[in-house]
Amino acid sequence: MSYLNFKSKYDKFPMKKIYNHHAFHGYDEIKQELQSKITENCILVFDYYPGVNEDEAMNLVTSLNPNRVIETINIFKDGQTITEQLKYYLTDDRTFGKMYFGDFIDFIDEAKLEETKQSILNNQGLTIVCGVGASLVTEGDIYVYFDMARWEIQLRYRKGMPNYKANNENEEILKKNKRGYFIEWRIADKHKERNFNKFDYVVDTNKANDPKMISGDTFRYSLDELSKTPFRTVPYFDPGIWGGQWMKEVCNLDKNEINYAWSFDGVPEENSILFDYDDVVFELPAMDLVLYKPKQLLGEQVYARFGAEYPIRFDFLDTIEGQNLSLQVHPLTEYIRKNYGMAYTQDESYYILDATEDACVYLGLKEGINPDEMIDDLREAQKGNIIFDAEKYINKFPAKKHDHFLIPAGTCHCSGAGAMVLEISATPYIFTYKLWDWGRVGLDGKPRPINVEHGKNVIQWNRTTGWVKENLVNATYPVTEEGNNCEIEHTGLHELEFIETRRYTIKDTSYHKTNGTVNQLNLIDGIEAIVESPTNAFEPFVVHYAETFIIPASIEEYTIRPYGESKNKEIKVIKAYVRNPKC
Length: 583
Known about the structure:
seven-stranded mixed beta sheet, alpha+beta, six-stranded antiparallel beta sheet, 31 strands
């Protein structure tokens, strides 16, 4: 199956239908619903995720004719003070900050907060408290939370939106994203998580001037339902300097774009989830599910190890008719913990979904190289004095469809041109040390960040040709699972990595157990498959070629079989899960 002769049924907007629940669509319906709940001397709280368009939301505020409006932006410290306070965490680096474990209260003028709290004790008429962290003033009589997905926030950064309380409209996107990733989103998620059970309403603000609102009960019910059924997150796609053309064909994307370099599909920390309420489509950050139902989604053992964080990431890297990725390396666990405050690192792998005849992967070091000479050459290349001779130092392996290359942290690597990679890895995706970028600049015309000095501290110089061939290139062997007679192969990951991957070649019904841990899968061959419950615990779930789907730990058992156009034909799926003694 090649992208040249196969049209996928890939669904870019997967959604979960919720029955017997209602969504309010548009500001008029939202206004009418809120007015029906407002009582005498009512306090209405509009609490925003950072990135919500406050001017747009203010139109709703004023339409309700409040006696008084309190905007929380006025109780936060000024932007310059906040930025100075965050200096240690923001760092001077373009890409890497330090994880901030504080809270909104750290950036609020506590005297102003207390004064505001006192001022509403004897409230008269309708008072609306609105803005980021509004519930810190009061939870009020009606609590409405305005939510937003991280990807939409990043798109707004690109259009000039600053970070919250920061005068950085014209700052480069890398630095805006860094401030969001290391600070704002962490704080906002912590604040939101504490209040899930207090929400009276939740508003989807992802589309400008097109809000949708559900009740807090509907919000909680929907997440609970999703934690008990297979589901997909909403993928997003982005061009890049090295991007290819495969995803345009297989994922039905805009043919007018120059390329598509990468996609996140199955990354709850970044992706969204869609709910369908009588044809009103409501979008939430998938992270809401992780935070609200972590044990049901992840399983007790994964939750005990990682907390309310989703540790597995699937994404696409497309270099077919494109270019090499940057030569790179990821930090070791100890290094990422000491330097960035992260609990685990970006171990990963490249599963080859498709490839041209000349596709390749650069992986590991050649035998007998001189580390000091390699670092000196990388430094000179960074200065523009030489072209780095990658093949002098780095192994170059041919890559074909269904190969699996394992990349534990500390291993030099990159996908060469001509490969469509399903990257299966741990979630901390931002921690890539680029060593050499083939002399390119980014799509914005600026040099992309090069991190030779970080890289030299984490490269594992003993991962040379012989070791790499034995341990990291198609380290595949057959395995058996009780009650399953399909072909099952362990394809990775390496023993240094915490993720197990297994490939199933399925001709009939295959049987699977979650063993108490979340399963993440992709249909890597075949047009369609169906996921079913042997006990009818969830509705049958259809997936298509190249789609990633998630099986919550709460689903104890499930089956997968060829379906639709793949009926009576062979399909393949790859499954990833966190290793534990039961598996």
